[in-house]
Write a structure and sequence with these properties.
It is built from four helices and no strands. It has helices at 2-9, 17-56, 60-85, 105-125. Helix 2 (17-56) runs antiparallel to helix 3. The protein is flat, with a radius of gyration of 23 Å.
Amino acid sequence: MEELNQLISQATFWHNSASFYQIFQEIDFLKATKKQYQRSHFILEDIKAALELLELSADEELLLEAQINLTQLQQELETIEIQQLLSNPHDQKGAFLTITARVGGVDAKYWAYMLLGMYSKWGESHSYKILLVEESYGAFSWD
């Protein structure tokens, strides 16, 4: 991070828009990674403290809190795993997804509609920008 800040402070840095755009993307990525690490670390510390207290005395509320924190930590780690799988520089590029219901009548078209909704919600929940380029219902009607 320090190296990136030094790079930004150079006068020639601002002459190449592609370069500074890439650097700012990297800084944003590092900040988000640091924040995610700190959040996961904080949850883990809470779990450790709860387990230490549970060793001293059994407390149902404390046990429930530890279980909730453990579930939350598991979700955080799953998110980190997906982000690591999508960490290739080309993974930051856009993608086109085509969903087509060619045969199967109303059921196939409804399934395609549900898939569009599921992929859209997944993308939005993972902070991806979703842009519907084209939608065609053909002879299909929802009425």
